[in-house]
Amino acid sequence: MIFNIPYIAVVALILIGLYAVVFKRNLIKIVIGITLIESGVNLFLITLAYRKGSTAPIYTASPGGIMSLPVPHALTLTSIVIGVAVLALMLSLVIHIYKIYGTLDVRNLGREEE
Amino acid sequence: MIPFETLLDTLKIQNWSLWNPLIWGIAIIIAYLIIYIIRGFGKKGFKERTEQAKVFLSGNPELEKEKMHVGGSNIYWGFTESLKWLYGSLEKMHTGNASDYILWFVIILGVMFLIIGVI
Amino acid sequence: MNMIEELLFHSPALIVAIPLIGAFLTPLVSKINDKLRNAFAIFIVLITTILVFMLSYNLFAYEGTKLAPDILSGGIQTYIFGGGPATIMGSESSFAIRILFEIDGLNAFMAIIASILALAGVIYSWSFMKEHTGQDKYYTLYLLMIAGIFGMILTGDMFNFFVFIEITSIAACALIAFYTNSGKAVDAGFKYIVISAVGALFILFAIGILYSQYNALNMAVLANSIQYNMLDKIALVLLISGLAMKAGIVPMHMWLPDAYGRAPSSVTLILVGATQASLYGIFRMAFSVYGKTIGNISPTIVDSVTNINSIGWLLVLLAILTMLIGVLMALKQNDLKRLIAFAALAEIGYMLLGLGVRLASKVVNEGQVGFNEYSNAALTGSIFHIMNDALDIGLLFLVAGAVYLVTKETNLNKLGGLARNMKYTTVFFLIGLLAVAGMPPMNGFSSKLIIYESTYQLNPIIGIIAILCSILLLAVFVKVFHSVFLGPKIPSLKDAKEAPRSMLLAMGIIACIIIFIGLFPSIILENIIQPATEAITNYSAYIGGVIP
Fold it and tell me: How does DSSP assign C369-399, residue by residue?
């Protein structure tokens, strides 16, 4: 049971991130919610790779014992880099929106009648 | 891709049915020729700048050009007015709020999972 | 002949690599001269288009007339990055260790559509963006987006698919928010990146679930060894929902009129390509990766056939809702580009309708499960409609961009009487109008007739709603044609001239292809569409491309 705690943490992170995106009105909080979802998915990918009592898969002449899987580590690194790029793009768009509208409330944006 | 002879074969009209687009194209061209010939039978002479060349609106005066042209939002007024109950709820659904878009996504995730996973 | 064979062998990698290198060289070229940068961008897209046409000619040609028949095996071309074999023999089974691009009929068909849209878009941008600053960033992002779309279409690996989805959405968001002084455009870009990021993260979650069960990221290896237990069902739900949100299916469609309507017109053209590449993703997931469980007709899963029918009926219901909401909202708009965006939304519903009818039309005949005769016809109509719709909606958006460039107005209440000054643009708009509504001499008629006839046999109400939505689309565009082009000359628009020549050239290319496909549909249908349909439903050939 104790080895299921990372999976429970993954589901909790994703649900908290979805709550922040759907129900919060500040633009910065929506961006933080997306970052929380991304952290949850990255944690899920790393948790898949662990085997009990394993070391890091970085040896050429290994001192014995089993190593954890290296492929999900590569997937997680790619995903973290993509997340950084998306976060930078979203924050720069928030700066532009604040300069034009003067408010960060998501209900006041995007009206078609103006 | 295909040899040149079979390409020429497919360009011929193979099925002389009602829904062949080549038949429709030829029929439209023939119809335009007939219309052009009939238009040529009309009277050519009319006097410019007299009452014959002005627009007739059953005696009403002609306003300036911008008011005479029926604008875009007034054309289907009867349709949108009679379906006002439908359009009211549709317009309220399209709020423009970014968090509502993700709310719809979560609702569809739940509905799909109920249908695929459980039923 | 050896040089052509080498070129064709490496062409899947070159089709993605050449726009990528061009995108990174464009800021350097633009320091020299402005016209040189525009010509360089058109040159790169032209080389990519030639490579795509050579690749698909090699794939679709008959046996005796292929260019290089040795690189295909069973009608599928596999390109493995890094050389060497795709699978290595482990202790008891073989597993795939390299990333590969796998090209069958449907991939080549989508690549043809994307390359025509890209070529028309770059030629159109020459004079559409002439007065704006920041053009070197525009061309860089445009070429990057083209590279992302080609990567999304050609790949055979699940995580590679996710990476290219993210590349396309980041480049598209920056291009949608191009008019940074207008608040509405920046807001549309923000909504697009929020939707794309959440959708792509859920797709990554589903890829993680599938990897954890089968230890494979390759689409063909996953298709070989998939069972349909509870975790696979969760992964299927997440994949279809995430890809449907990116493709604009109701009720997750609300970003589509904002993003299409507030972006520059040449960006909207390539954004149509990105939306259809996401729809291609649903095709690939439903028929190839999950082919053994959903598309299968073997008697061993005959007892779960009602379970599998319900996916098809759910997709049919969503497609009908998409068509109805798209057309009904389009009747009420006042803004020209937002109206055409709602019409594009209705056309996406037609494409999903054929997919749903194919999945929902199974019959059980004394213990044998089979497909009706109209199932393949519905899928053929959908795939043909992808090509027709990309061309038609593209032409309408190009005309809307020409009207905006000449008059600086997009409100339908203030436009009028433009047919006296812009003669060629009016003719192109008339061709696009007839094609979208499904009138016989144009290409929309051919694909819509196939969809009407095959969906009518599943349930008559579906066919009737499809015909009704076509008629309402005709009504919508007659309204636009009257209020923009017909009527007396408005005094405030009296100095409107004809559109510039490069924009007319781009519109002319698309209009000629529309008329050609409309008059001779059987050439395209027999040689390109039906091989694509047979390739997508034949998942064992797809598996055989990697595992011999």
Answer: EEE-THHHHHHHHHHHHHHHHHHHHHHHHHH
Kindly give, in sequence order, each residue whose CB lies less than 8 Å from that of residue C307, ignoring residues fewer than 6 positions away: B116, B119
Note which residues in 46-65 of chain A have CB less than 8 A from chain B.
Answer: none
Residue A108 lies in a domain: no
Give residue-wise pLDDT tens across range C262-271.
Answer: 999 999 999 9
Query: Considering the domain boundaries, does residue A60 fall inside one?
Result: no
Q: pLDDT-based confidence at C216, cuts 50/70/90? A: confident
Q: Write down the ipTM of this complex.
A: 0.95
> Phi and psi for C204 in degrees, rounded to 5?
-65, -35
- CA-nearest of B106, B87, C486, C541 to A20 is B106
Please report which confidence band the pLDDT of residue C290 belongs to, taking 50, 70 and 90 as the band edges. Answer: confident
Q: Is A82 part of any domain?
A: yes
Domain with A43, as residue range(s), is 2-51+69-101
Residues of chain C with pLDDT > 70: what percent?
93
Structural domain contains residue B70: no
> Which of C204, C213, C337 is the mutation pick for testing A, counting most A CBs within 10 A?
C204
For the question of whether the overall pTM of this predicted structure is more than 0.90, the answer is: yes
Pair of tokens at residue B81 = 């007015």
Domain that residue B108 falls in: 80-119
Whether B31 and chain C come into contact, CB under 8 Å, resolves to no
Residue B14: φ, ψ to 5°: -95, -40
pLDDT tens figures, C392-429? 999 999 999 999 998 888 888 888 888 888 889 999 99
* In-domain check, residue A92: yes
**Total domains, chain A:** 1
**Partner-chain contact B98 A107, CB within 8 Å:** no
CATH code of the domain covering residue A14: 1.10.287.3510
Cα–Cα distance between C43 and C123 in angstroms, integer? 10
Of B72, B90, B91, the CB nearest to C334: B72
How many angstroms away from the CA of B26 is the closest CA of chain C?
A: 10
Residue B65 covered by a domain: no
